[in-house]
Amino acid sequence: MKKQTNQLYEGMYILSSTLSDESRKKAWEKILNGITEKGGEIHKIHEPGRKRLAYEINGKREGYYYVIYFSAPTQCIGELWKEYHLHEDLIRFLTLQTEKVMETLEFPPLRMQ
Question: pTM for the full model?
Fold first, then answer.
């Protein structure tokens, strides 16, 4: 029997800005529950809030951003991605393997050329 190995991941999620506060909360809980139900553990959540998108996605110019650090079995990431593609309120998502949990998020100012 193969031993499950948990890796540390950083996930960024953008939810539709047209959702009500209650609907957005339910959509976010659905994402968090998906992680924990598959054996994952949440370490840190950052909520940068409503931001303008860099480019229009499916007619949307804004979204609610969330960054989460979690550990999970490596094989569950593919299952999570399949669920994310079916999540109609999730505009974009990105999951990366990381080495450490960032306690604060800092973005350098954009340089105009």
Answer: 0.84
